[in-house]
Amino acid sequence: MNAKTIIMSAALTITALTTKSQGMENNPNANTSLAPVEKPVLTKEWDKVFPQSDKVEHSKVTFVNRYGITLVADMYRPKNAAVASTASSRPVKKLPALAISGPFGAVKEQSSGLYAQQLAERGFLTIAFDPSFTGESGGMPRRVASPDINVEDFSAAVDYLMNHDDVDPGKIGIIGICGWGGIAIEAAINDPRIKATVASTMYDMTRVNANGYFDSENTADQRNAKRAAMATQRTIDYKNGSYQRAGGVIDPLPEDAPQFVKDYFDYYKTPRGYHVRSGNSNDGWNTTSNLPFINFKFFEYADELANAVLIVHGDKAHSYYFGKDTFALLKGDNKQMLTVNGASHCDLYDRLDIIPMDEIAAFLAEHLDK
Prior knowledge:
The structure is a single chain. The strands form 2 sheets. An 8-stranded mixed β-sheet has the order 1-2-6-5-7-8-9-10, with helices on both faces. It has a two-stranded antiparallel ribbon with strand order 3-4. Among the domains are: 33 residues; 220 residues, Alpha/Beta hydrolase fold, catalytic domain (Rossmann fold, 3-Layer(aba) Sandwich). It is of the alpha/beta class. Helix content is 36%, strand content 18%.
């Protein structure tokens, strides 16, 4: 092939690529449409760790996030909502709505579903969703956590609620439990459609991964050691063709385990909270999931969050410092810290005699009406 032929061939290739690109630009559905919602096989029976309420209607819904992952949620709708007619289930007045997730490593059949059902009894349309890569939601590989994608999951839930016929799009809030409490606040900083946020027994997952518990590993050498260990694991995972799991809640429980570890065991490893799809109940996250949390900081712009936030924490929780320190970053008279005296971290997972559900509902109702 002579030089002239090579030049002509290259020109034809460039023309073809340009034409293809222009064709995609002229067809918006070719590269800008939402990813299709998958049709996952959903569990039909009631498999929650809490009893079903006769005061709400329950159904399952699906929606897609910005990364094309299909999320699965349980919807809880108050039965006492006034409807337009006996022939219609549409409410006379559109409902305030909440998206709920957490704890970190749990599934919607556990704590988030309980919160969702309780708040539906109090007049909200609620969805408790499984995050990307977990539970019944989509995404491969399984059990991956990501500060970016998990924040997006909340906004995707808001996308869904904003477009629901029964929901007042101006009255949407979110609730995050445990590690999802920090994720919820970060989502609210980024997404002003979220009019009110509740973080219950919250963790800052970026802080605990980067600094260790109680900031006991807060040096460059310690962080670099963690990075090196996970980088090594990435090489091993790629070679093996599978991802190592970090392990869920430790089992069997050592006699000298800290009290908060015993509390986790009492929830995730007993009939109280065990669920077959929960990572915390079983073999945990993929080990390398911790890596991005080390290099990502929540709350850098916390003082810019204009909408309402309620942080609920027990004063006996090992995680109490996360709630107090995060609250100190927030500005405005629509931010509240509610301390539950005598409550441990896991008490706020499912102890309805301790969780201040009425106060949570009142806060949300007040600030979603503004």
